[in-house]
Amino acid sequence: MSSFLTPSRRQFLALAGAGAAAGLLPFGANAAPDTRNTDTVRLTWGFHGLTLIAKERGTFEKALAEKGIKVEWLGPFPNHAPTLQAVTGGSADFGFGGSTTPALAAIIAGSPLVFSQFVLYEPRTTAIIAKDGSGIDKVSDLVGKSVAVNRSGLGEFLLVAALEKNGIDRSKVKFVYLNPPDAAPALASGKVDAWSMWSPGVDIARLEYKAHDIFLEGRDLEFYIDYSSYVTSRKFSQENSQIVRAVAAAYEEEAKWVNGNVVEAETIVQKRAGYSDVIRDQFIERRRTYKLIPVTDTAFVADLQKAADWLVARKILPEPITVSDHLAQF
């Protein structure tokens, strides 16, 4: 195994100064021995987002293959929580780039997960929707109604934020905890009155079930609380820092391609996910972009810490967590 060369004191100070100027942690603060104990990485995927595009295009795999790393794709997964369970249970090495909120909840519950990379995507399209003709046209109409959300996830967070913004006590609305595969038919059949969901599920439901937005994250919420993230196990990051670093770099390159090739990227997702041209064209018009953020970005980590504190204060997360204790060392 190779190892990092030990820098001189002058080199260390120069690197630390440059990192501080860039808002990053100083050299060594998030570094680990240069390790690699496998030639295979097991990645989870679902029918949306950057990970699906990376899987379908093949450039991501080729980039890792050049470093002697074989990619095994595991999925599809319906949402982030099952990928976290797969990583925790040892059947996968990385989550599929989902919400930070369930990742934080899993860590609090004892899962040995660490963040390896963060993602900001625009526009933010998570929404609370209700069927046309339901009489639910604004957040206040949800009083006495039931809303499907994923527990400790993006759906629950958005509903809590919407109620808080409109001065409505959450006890006046029934939270129905369902994962997306169960929530969609529940809305269609009328078993729940509304659904808090992210793209592309919310876009498909809006069209197929003739529904409309009650609250739209990018339009109605002025701040970020939930972000996207890649996670791995602490053990994997410690034993395979080379692979963690290579995966992060490959996703960074994939994001650059997607941002410069929106039509092609959205067509790739549509073909695999199987939704209509109408939905695809909506995504193309929005020109969704991805910005990948390293775990060494101290300003971002501070923002995520504020978000975690917000979630704890509102009992979406059960107890406090120090985000900086759960960053991959690579």
Automatic annotation (TrEMBL):
Signal peptide residue numbers: 1-31
PROSITE patterns named in the record: TAT
Cell compartment(s), UniProt: Periplasm
Transmembrane segments: none
Statement: the UniProt record of this protein carries the keyword Signal: yes
InterPro entries in UniProt: ABC_SsuA_sub-bd (IPR010067), Solute-binding_3/MltF_N (IPR001638), SsuA/THI5 (IPR015168), TAT_signal (IPR006311), TAT_signal_bac_arc (IPR019546)
Any matching Pfam family: NMT1
Keyword field: Signal, Transport
Domain Solute-binding protein family 3/N-terminal positions: 42-261
Family: Belongs to the bacterial solute-binding protein SsuA/TauA family.
Protein known as: NrtA/SsuA/CpmA family ABC transporter substrate-binding protein
The species this protein was found in: Xanthobacter oligotrophicus
Lineage of the species this protein comes from: Bacteria, Pseudomonadati, Pseudomonadota, Alphaproteobacteria, Hyphomicrobiales
